[in-house]
Design a protein that fits this description.
about 220 residues, Rossmann fold
């Protein structure tokens, strides 16, 4: 009989955790357009109304952690609101590889005008198909191709640690696609809400999706 090594003899597996937060709701006029990588501001009213979400994130996120934002100010402003809600100050690094999908010449168009420019059927849960590339911009497949190597690099730089990223709906879906090893079509079915938390982990050599669109739990009002 051959003895099988027990758990204490197994090699220790390194787990690297990435906490991905979609930025807060943007200001009303921007929401009327396909703003993509335009640098638009946050909605001041929503910032006040969503105070509980910021407190939840401040308590939920790991500390210490490496914090990353994209070049767009809405991610920096969201991180600052989390810090102010109780997380405390942390240095922010800019990571261009996790920016939102670039819609090129169609960026900033009202939704109805944007829809008229499409050459292919849009995804049922997104305004543009997975492989449609606006003039001068990116397809969602391009975004996955950009985000994937960025995540691999971050894992290599932070092996065994925690990384918090304030990013965008498109780049977070792309991160889930990379972790799952699938194309863009299935992950666009995920709803990535503003201020929601998506968690992916690199466990040894394998990716794991720990949570998608995690939000604070609230009880319904009595009445």
């Amino acid at each position: 009989m051959v003895a099988v090594p027990g758990p204490r003899y197994r090699a220790r597996v390194t787990t690297t955790r990435l906490f991905l937060i979609r930025h807060a709701l943007v200001e009303p006029s921007a929401r009327l357009t396909m703003y993509g990588t335009m640098d638009v501001g946050l909605c001041e009213l929503a910032l006040r109304q969503e105070a509980a979400s910021y407190r939840w994130l401040a308590a939920r996120l790991p500390a210490p952690a490496r914090w990353l934002v994209t070049p767009l100010s809405r991610t920096r402003a969201t991180a600052a609101a989390i810090f102010a809600a109780g997380y405390g100050e942390a240095s922010l690094e800019i990571e261009p590889g996790l920016i939102e999908q670039d819609l090129g010449e169609w960026q900033g168009l009202p939704h109805e005008v944007f829809a008229e420019r499409l050459r292919h059927r849009p995804h049922p849960f997104w305004s543009i198909g997975v492989d449609e590339r606006p003039p001068g911009g990116e397809s969602f497949s391009d975004v996955i191709g950009r985000v994937g190597p960025t995540l691999d690099r971050l894992v290599a730089e932070n092996a065994g640690g925690d990384v918090v990223v304030v990013a965008h709906g498109g780049s977070i879906r792309a991160a889930v696609a990379h972790a799952m090893g699938v194309g863009g079509e299935p992950v666009l079915a995920f709803s990535i809400k503003n201020l929601s938390l998506t968690r992916i982990e690199k466990v040894g050599t394998d990716w794991r999706v720990a949570a998608v669109n995690e939000e604070p739990f609230t009880l319904p009002a009595e009445g």
